[in-house]
Write a structure and sequence with these properties.
The mean pLDDT is 97. Helices cover 35% and strands 16% of the residues. It has a four-stranded antiparallel beta sheet. The protein is α+β, with helices and mostly antiparallel strands and 161 residues long.
Length: 161
């Protein structure tokens, strides 16, 4: 699979098979994701392995599509608003890398932003100065969502003098 093919065929997975994800594969994808760009090598991502009790307490409407693995992804605090933004952007790149690594291995990821609510931040035990970027369901897809047409990039481009 080429990188362009991986980018173009990766989809948000909403239903997963019950097949387990090996710890070795998960760690391989999480490690590959750590090569995401991050200013000054701050590596601002932190991960929460969400167990069954916390997962149930989150009360996700589809239980993350039945994914066998659920992980919270946090962005570390920063001393200035600008650096906070840099951290959030780097963590988003981390998640995209994770999604592509999992996809290349035949797995998939569901990205939920539900961790950002005050209730769920408390359930996850997230310190006040951290940002919750995602709660991810990870596993093997039960179905393959169709490719949706994208807006031509020419309509998104502005040329400056």
């Amino acid at each position: 699979m080429t990188i362009i093919n991986a980018i173009e065929t990766r989809r948000t997975i909403k239903a997963f098979k019950p097949d387990p994800v090996s710890e070795a594969d998960l760690h391989k994808w999480l490690t590959a994701a750590s090569y995401a760009p991050n200013h000054r090598m701050t590596e601002p991502w932190e991960l929460l392995s969400i167990g069954p009790v916390t997962r149930a307490a989150l009360q996700h409407k589809t239980d993350f599509g039945g994914a066998p693995v659920v992980i919270g992804v946090l962005s570390k605090p920063a001393p200035t608003p600008f650096e906070r933004d840099e951290h959030v952007m780097a963590v988003s790149c981390y998640i995209q890398n994770l999604m592509l690594a999992a996809h290349a291995a035949g797995a998939g990821v569901f990205w939920s932003s539900m961790g950002a609510s005050a209730r769920n931040r408390e359930l996850l035990g997230v310190p006040q100065d951290y940002d919750v970027i995602a709660v991810l369901g990870i596993g093997y897809p039960a179905d393959g969502p169709a490719i949706k047409e994208r807006t031509p990039i020419a309509g998104k481009m502005t040329y400056l003098p």
